[in-house]
Amino acid sequence: MAKLKILIQGYAKEIDGKEFASSSTVLINENNLNIVVDPGINRKELLKSLEKENLKVSDINFVILTHMHNDHSLLSGIFENAKILDNSDIISFDSNMYSHNGFIPNTNIKIIKTPGHDQFHASILVETEDLGSVVIAGDVFWWYDNEEQKIDLESLLNHKDPYVKNENQLKQSRKEILQIADYIIPGHGKIFKVIK
After folding, report:
1. Are the C-beta atoms of residues 57 and 50 closer than 8 Å to each other?
2. Where are the beta strands (DSSP E) in the chain?
3. Quick count: other Cβ atoms within 10 Å of Cβ 1?
4. Which residues contact 183 (CB under 8 A, 6 or more apart)?
5. 105-120 pLDDT, tens digit each
């Protein structure tokens, strides 16, 4: 089973008329592979968080991007030894691209296409011993820092996303994630238990 650690809790806020946002960044270890999901945009915080785990950027094998928005993906290039995964492909820094068929190689970690917020959005399903099925949902679910994070079913399905590309797809992606997850790590906000 995989071990999972939230390195950075995602945030989205406005200070003095300026927007500040960086995604939830998650470290997964399975089969001696170090995997980072959504490295975000806050380089100083990311490097500090990795150091606390006794890891360097060169120790990361895979970086998974839930989608290509800068607040989730900007720092992916600092992991020089890693392969980058998106909703369909594995990309290496020698420009080789090939399909991952829905799984991170040599793991049981599943990559699920969850369009809506972005056409090419993906969520990551990780089976853990302590939390059960955890979905790293990127911006399928996210909140501004000053918003109440309501986690009842109706609120989760109908939460407004000002950046949504396709509302029907987003709602369908939310339904799918809520059916399979015990816990969800949103793109911006606190991890929450799914009430079933």
Report:
1. yes
2. 3-8, 11-15, 18-22, 25-30, 33-37, 62-64, 83-85, 89-91, 97-99, 110-113, 122-128, 132-138, 183-186, 192-193
3. 11
4. 131, 132, 133, 134, 135, 191, 192, 193, 194
5. 999 999 999 999 999 9
CA distances from 21 to 65, 106, 134, 181, 194 (A): 16, 32, 23, 25, 25
What average pLDDT does this structure show over 127-144?
A: 98
Tens-digit pLDDT profile for residues 55-101 = 999 999 999 999 999 999 999 999 999 999 999 999 998 889 999 99
Q: List the one residue out of 190, 192, 193, 194 whose CA is nearest residue 8.
A: 190
pTM for the complete prediction? 0.97
Q: Which CATH number characterizes residue 141's domain?
A: 3.60.15.10
pLDDT at position 196 is: 81
Question: Residue 181's pLDDT is what?
Answer: 98
Question: How many domains, the chain?
Answer: 1
What is the extent of the structural domain holding 176? 3-193
Please list the residues that pair with 128 across neighbouring strands.
2, 132
At residue 32's C-alpha, the angle toward residues 47 and 133, to 5°, is 85
